[in-house]
Design brief:
Chain lengths: ~325, ~325
Amino acid sequence: MRIVVDAMGSDNYPGPDVEGAVLAAREWGDEIILVGDRNRVEAELARHDVAGLNIEIVHASQVIEMTDKPAESAKAKTDSSMHVGMGLVRDGKADAYVTAGNTGGVLAVATLYTLKRIPGVRRPALTAIYPFLHGYTVAADIGANADCRPEYLLQFAGMASLYAELALGIEQPRVGLLSNGEEEGKGNQLVKETAPLMRQAEGLNYIGNVEPKEVLSGATDVVIHDGFTGNILLKSIEATASMVRKLIESEIRAGLVTTLGGLLAYPAFRRARRRIDPDEIGGAPLLGVNGVVIIGHGRSNAVAIKNAVGQARKAVQGGVIEAMRARFK
Amino acid sequence: MRIVVDAMGSDNYPGPDVEGAVLAAREWGDEIILVGDRNRVEAELARHDVAGLNIEIVHASQVIEMTDKPAESAKAKTDSSMHVGMGLVRDGKADAYVTAGNTGGVLAVATLYTLKRIPGVRRPALTAIYPFLHGYTVAADIGANADCRPEYLLQFAGMASLYAELALGIEQPRVGLLSNGEEEGKGNQLVKETAPLMRQAEGLNYIGNVEPKEVLSGATDVVIHDGFTGNILLKSIEATASMVRKLIESEIRAGLVTTLGGLLAYPAFRRARRRIDPDEIGGAPLLGVNGVVIIGHGRSNAVAIKNAVGQARKAVQGGVIEAMRARFK
């Protein structure tokens, strides 16, 4: 397998990106293609022991920065690491592309300039893979499409369901539609119009409306929402988890006995944190474009990048793209 | 001050409702009017020491149950504790109405059959008051209007801002519009159309788009969203806080040393929990109807009911309804 890693993706590129690529090459033995400024990538690689690893560098002279406007930079910076990297996948020279770069930039470069959409797919969807207690939940869309039509949501469900099954190994993934109540008939106009389409869709294990608590408890394997609502859900889960953790920590530090207790309980906190740590997932797929694209957080560290490569491997091994081409033909 | 408490509101009525009313009468010395089945309320009251308290019972022969369909039951059960209770407020015989009952029922009875809307208000809004680390954040709408127009959101902002200022004592409350990005121009169609109206509105301290992390960190005093999105935000905050707590507890119990640490740190956990405990708020206002209505959780206990009465007192003392009548005239 040949996997492209964008060396110029993360907030602190190329350090975490290159180190993550090295870790991935060492763990799985796949061929890794680092795309980015050759001099900077070489300098970074020199800091690691790469003996016996299969790592290649492909030069790209430009970078789509986190602060760049996606549409403009995707159009202007045609030799960016995103263009070059996804170009390799498009041309069959690599099997997957992994980046922690500007999400809007990836979306624009993938959709408009390189991979394009899988024929029949109306809108690509950004996803998150939640690492909840029970396992994984695939969420789509989390921000590519702020306003959606029912048919888009139906396609997101089909794509996310295939990903959950083929890449994550979840049999007959349960698909829920995020709503403000579980009962049939609850929801905004979009949800009410989407529900009947979901119910009638073939090959979809649709379980009806789900509320946030069902998403978090693992009552569904896939949760579908428009990109605006999905983004709010994702960010409120992240913000709340962070707040509760900080609150407990500050209350523990407020007394001597509780501080001692906190020290003794520290391994439990660390384990709890790791069980819902996004770094353990690394990245999630951009669904609907004609090739495997895995997007990680801008603040990804090397471990997150390595795990994003692991995610890409699962998608390639599962034959996700081939299955989607067949489904939407 | 005379405050009506719905004796038949909570999931376990009339126990928590009556006990909460007793606690409130004792704490603040106000006159409390318990509305509900006289026999059941009297039996419940007999279990408490009410000597010297100013508690009256007004009979209502019907109950809008949690399982009732709001529109139907609001129309059919015209002698419900909701009809009778809000009727007392409408007729000037009481200053506020507090209930832990069927939210949709309250909304329907208030809007269509008793208090009606404040003239000029297009849609009433359900609210939540978040008890975050920094103080309070008022959120509207959390479910009365799944689909909204920009003008509704603008009115929600005006109403929630007045409430934050007059009832909660927050000077020049900062008003944020929930979006999937802080930058101007981010958002779905509704947010994009609402933002300019907010910016131009007089008497509104509008601070722009806010994301969930700003809501949780106290960067805004008021957060405005359509009822669908607001409901998802509220429920995802609740579900995540609960999940993180359970996760930490289970990891602590997984080892002997960490269990000991957890026991020592227990007071800190209890303090942390109390700082974000909805029972400490008790209830939040239904904004836009022509009288003070405070709605609590169905699972309210007596303390929550008492605090909901406290919330009603603040709304009455702050002159919230009079200010809204003036604003929307």
